[in-house]
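Weekly structure sync, notes
Attendees: PL (lead), two postdocs, one rotation student
Agenda item 3: pending single-chain targets
PL asked that the sequence for the first pending target be pasted directly into the notes so everyone works from the same version. It is reproduced below exactly as submitted, 339 residues in total.
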Amino acid sequence: MKKIGFLSFGHWTPSPHSQTRSASDALLQSIDLAVAAEELGADGAYFRVHHFARQLASPFPLLAAVGARTSRIEIGTAVIDMRYENPLYMAEDAGAADLIAGGRLQLGISRGSPEQVIDGWRYFGYAPPEGQSDADMARRHTEVFLDVLQGKGFAKPNPRPMFPNPPGLLRLEPHSEGLRERIWWGASTNATAEWAAKLGMNLQSSTLKIDESGKPFHIQQAEQIRLFRAAWKDAGHPREPRVSVSRSIFALVDDRDRMYFGRDESEDQIGFLSGSERAIFGRSYADEPDKLIEQLKTDEAIAEADTLLLTVPNQLGVDYNAHVIEAILKHVAPALGWR
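Predicted structure, written out during the meeting:
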């Protein structure tokens, strides 16, 4: 059994071929797709965060809106770039959104990927201390964020406050109990997956990974997941961790599917991040359901994960994306034992 959700990057473009032509379209359609996915029986609605781009950015208004419109589905991110975040303000936003959603938030965070502008986090007022990298800064922001999510008091109260205070040091409010255990780290290397395990974060492994062995993508990803679980066990955390992988999977069940994806015969691709880091990008899957089932049986990383996030082509509109999700839930997942 697996939890199956969707992951939307929330692209929009004024092109007449797009059904998502503005930021308003992207946001409102994201809410509608989450509602539709819940009605179809999907388990999660996840959103990617990018800055300086025609895509979804600041996630918490959207997460809160989805939480208010749904009642069961998990609501998450994959991922928030922690180089851009004030961890204390983020903890307040996350606590509020989680309370609105009734404790359904699943926040994926990470050091981020190459962005649309050079050192975009500097425009947000952040810079790494001397001798540290932007990745170090992201991990430091993460550690502060995880710490304040515990709900412990740390701020000295004013002796003459405007409103009465509870006794002792003050914590950030609103505090949402249990949110600390629903934070995920988007790891692109084996080392950061193990670091996330030590800190008690769940693991999100995306459709790309730093190429550390030259092996096929799904095998490298499966090895990363096993290293994460071993590090989690060594850390002695009392609960079981969760692991998600993201995939582009399309079951060709009607003429629209064949028109959009019928010629998609992709394989793993090699590219470079920041000009020097060799990365491996996982293939897409698109085929008739019976053939698709056989292909997915060989994906070792999907087998290792408990959660599968289906990347959706959001510019094709809510109705078609709901159809994409339903086709996997109905024609593929049962035969693979995911349902």
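Discussion points:
- Residues 3-336 form a domain with the TIM Barrel fold (CATH 3.20.20.30).
- The chain has one domain: 3-336.
Action: rotation student to compare against the earlier draft before next sync.
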